[in-house]
Amino acid sequence: MRTEDARGRVLLAAGLVPVGRVASYGDLARIVGIGPRQVGAIMATCGPGVPWWRIVGHDGVLAPLEKARPHWEREGIEVRPDGRGCRMRVYRADIAELADEYRFALAERG
Known about the structure:
Helix content is 55%, strand content 4%. It is mainly alpha-helical.
């Protein structure tokens, strides 16, 4: 997959994560068909129109959390007591549903 294609596909998938939910880099990687580190690199350069605060590490950790905190508060995502991220078992998006929505959106894009 070309870099431009991978970027567009990752940003498409990230944009489909529902408000108040998160997905891990690995979740998006499996959906899009690339590695989690590639997803991380793409997310690190995404623009303000992409909900980057909804994409976290496999353990719910997000850095920099302080930049994401206002978004999380607005969406009802609570920070864990250790202050490093959120509880994945509580806030993780339905990954099967996300994958279905991604495939549909990708087909619509042509």
